[in-house]
Design goal:
The protein is an alpha/beta fold. The chain has two domains: 65-79 and 346-444, Aspartate Aminotransferase, domain 1 (Alpha-Beta Complex), CATH 3.90.1150.10; 84-341, Aspartate Aminotransferase, domain 2, CATH 3.40.640.10. Helices cover 35% and strands 15% of the residues. The protein contains twelve helices and 17 strands. The protein has helices at residues 8-18, 48-59, 84-89, 92-95, 107-124, 136-151, 164-177, 193-199, 221-230, 332-368, 393-402, 432-444; strands at residues 69-70, 128-129, 155-159, 180-184, 186-187, 190-191, 204-210, 234-239, 258-262, 278-282, 294-299, 305-310, 375-376, 385-389, 405-406, 409-410, 421-425. The strands form five sheets. The chain has a seven-stranded mixed beta sheet with strand order 2-10-9-8-7-3-4, with helices on both faces. The chain has a four-stranded antiparallel beta sheet with strand order 13-14-17-16, covered by helices on one side. Strands 1-15 form a two-stranded parallel sheet. α5 (107-124) packs parallel to α10 (332-368) and α10 (332-368) packs across α12 (432-444). The radius of gyration is 25 Å and the shape is globular. The chain starts with 7 loop residues before the first helix and ends with a helix. The relative contact order is 0.14. The mean pLDDT is 92.
Length: 446
C-alpha cells in the first residue's frame, strides 16, 4: 500500500523518516531558477453537481465532427464506422481486457488477433504480419531497425514524401542505433528516381517510401523496387491511408520486403489523434526479425484448433540485447475494430469505399483548379488527397471554419517551400452537397 502524506503530521513523519528538515530539501537538485516562487492558480474544489455542470459547459465548446464537413486528411481520415463495431468492441471481454500476457487462456481474443493478421496479409500481399504496432509512425521506425538487423548496413534512405511526423519518429529511433538518415527529394509530387539512383549504395539498408504518399500522389513503386533490389537494398512501403488497397495493387505484389502502415481508417475514430494502430507485414524469410508479438494457429492434445503466441523474440522472453524490439504489447482493441470493419465491408465494400474516396477527390480537384487564384501543383496521379496552390491559406481556413467546414492542411507547416499550398482530402463521408458548398465558398473568397 502506498503512503500518501495528507496531513501536517504525515508530512512531518515522512521528513523524519527521510532524515531531512523540509520539503524543499527533496528538490535541492533542481536549479533554483526553475523552481516556482508563487502559488498555482488552482480554483477551489467543486461539489459533484457543480463539477458535472462545469464539465457539460466545457464539452459544449467542442466541435462535433458530425455537424461539420471535413476536407482534412494528412494521416487521420474521417471514414464511416458501422454500428456493429462499437457494439462488439464495447463488450466487456474485449473492452476491459489488457493485451493478455498469459493469453493461451483467452482463446477468443487470440482468435481476433489471428484474424487481424490474416486480413493484413491479404491486404498487403505479404506472407506474415504481427499482432499490430502502436501506430503507423512507430511501425515505420521499427521497419527501419528490422532492415538494419537483416542487412547490418547503417544507412537509411527515406523519401520526403513520407508523412513528416513519421519521418521525425524514424529519425528519433535512428539516433539510438547510430543509423544515418538520408532524405530524398521529390519531383512533381513523387519521390525523385534520379536522386534515388545516385544516393543508394552498398551501405544502404533500406529505402523507405509511402504510397499513396503524403501529398496523396501515387509513387512509382515498381521502379523504386528495381533500383533498391539492384543494390540488394530492402524496400519498405508505408501505407497511411489503407483504404487505398481497395483499388491499388498490394505492395507485396510490387516487390516490397516490409510493409507497414496505419489502420485508423478501419473502424477507429479520429479522436483528436489516437489511439491508433500500426500494422507490419513482411516475407516469410524475415519472420523471425519481426518485432512485437505474433499469434499462430495450432491444435491441442485432443486435436482441437487453438491459438497461441509464437516466435516471441521480444525483450520479455529472451536476453534484452538479443531482442528484435522492446515493444512487448499491441493495440488489441483498435485491431479488433479494424478486423470487424474489414469483415463487415468485405472485398466489394472496401473497393466501394476506395472508389468513392478517389472519385470525390477528383471531382473536387477539377472544380477547385478552375477557380481563379487556385492552381494545380502536381500532375501525378493521386488517390484521395491533392495539393492546391492559392494566395492566403490561413484566410481560407478561417473562412471555411466559420462555415462549419474543417479545411485542408496548410503544407508550409511541414514544407517551407510549399508556402500557400493546401492539402485537400475527401472520403466516402463527403456528400455532393458538401463538396459543392466548399467550391462555392472558395469561389467567393477574394
Amino acid at each position: 500500500m502506498r503512503f500518501i502524506p495528507n496531513t501536517d503530521q504525515d508530512r512531518k513523519e515522512m521528513l523524519e523518516f527521510l532524515g531531512i528538515k523540509s520539503i524543499k530539501e527533496l528538490f535541492k537538485n533542481i536549479p533554483e531558477e526553475l523552481l516556482l516562487k508563487k502559488n498555482l492558480k488552482i480554483p477551489k474544489g467543486l461539489s459533484e453537481i457543480e463539477l458535472v455542470r462545469e464539465m457539460r459547459l466545457l464539452s459544449e465548446k467542442n466541435a462535433d465532427l458530425e455537424h461539420y464537413s471535413c476536407f482534412l486528411g494528412a494521416g487521420a481520415y474521417h471514414h464511416f464506422i458501422p454500428a456493429i463495431i462499437p457494439h462488439l468492441t464495447g463488450r466487456s471481454e474485449f473492452y476491459t481486457s489488457y493485451t493478455p500476457y498469459q493469453s493461451e487462456a483467452s482463446q477468443g481474443l487470440l482468435q481476433t488477433i489471428y484474424e487481424f493478421q490474416t486480413l493484413v496479409c491479404e491486404l498487403t500481399g505479404m506472407d506474415v504480419t504481427n499482432a499490430s504496432m502502436y501506430d503507423g509512425a512507430s511501425a515505420l521506425a521499427e521497419a527501419m531497425i528490422m532492415a538494419f538487423h537483416i542487412t547490418r548496413r547503417e544507412e537509411i534512405i527515406i523519401s520526403k514524401t513520407i508523412h513528416p511526423e513519421y519521418r521525425e519518429v524514424v529519425k528519433t529511433y535512428a539516433q539510438a542505433k547510430n543509423l544515418k538518415i538520408i532524405e530524398l527529394g521529390y519531383e512533381n509530387g513523387i519521390t525523385s528516381l534520379e536522386e534515388l539512383g545516385k544516393k543508394v549504395s552498398d551501405k544502404t539498408a533500406a529505402v523507405l517510401i509511402q504510397n499513396p504518399n503524403f501529398f496523396g500522389s501515387l509513387e512509382n513503386v515498381k521502379e523504386i523496387e528495381r533500383i533498391a533490389h539492384k543494390n540488394k537494398v530492402l524496400l519498405v512501403v508505408a501505407i497511411v491511408e489503407p483504404t487505398s488497397l481497395g483499388l491499388l495493387k498490394p505492395p507485396g505484389e510490387l516487390g516490397a520486403d516490409i510493409v507497414v502502415g496505419e489502420g485508423q481508417s478501419f473502424g477507429n475514430p479520429i479522436s483528436f489523434g489516437g489511439p491508433y494502430l500500426g500494422f507490419m507485414a513482411t516475407k516469410d524469410k524475415y519472420m523471425r526479425k519481426l518485432p512485437g508479438r505474433l499469434v499462430g494457429a495450432t491444435t491441442d492434445s485432443k486435436g482441437r484448433r487453438g491459438y497461441i503466441l509464437t516466435l516471441q523474440a521480444r525483450e520479455q522472453h529472451i536476453r534484452r540485447e538479443k531482442a528484435t524490439s522492446n515493444i512487448c504489447t499491441n493495440e488489441a482493441l483498435c485491431a479488433l475494430a479494424a478486423t470487424i470493419c474489414l469483415v463487415s465491408l468485405g472485398k466489394e465494400g472496401l473497393r466501394k469505399v476506395a472508389e468513392l474516396s478517389t472519385k470525390k477527390a477528383h471531382y473536387v480537384f477539377e472544380k477547385i483548379k478552375g477557380i481563379e487564384g487556385f492552381e494545380e501543383v502536381f500532375s501525378s496521379p493521386f488517390y484521395n488527397e491533392f495539393v492546391i496552390k492559392c494566395k492566403d491559406t490561413k484566410k481560407i481556413n478561417q473562412i471555411l471554419l466559420k462555415e462549419r467546414i474543417i479545411g485542408p492542411l496548410e503544407l508550409e507547416r511541414y514544407y517551407p517551400e510549399l508556402k500557400n499550398h493546401l492539402l485537400f482530402c475527401t472520403t466516402e463521408m463527403n456528400s455532393r452537397e458538401e463538396m459543392d458548398e466548399l467550391v462555392n465558398i472558395l469561389r467567393k473568397i477574394k
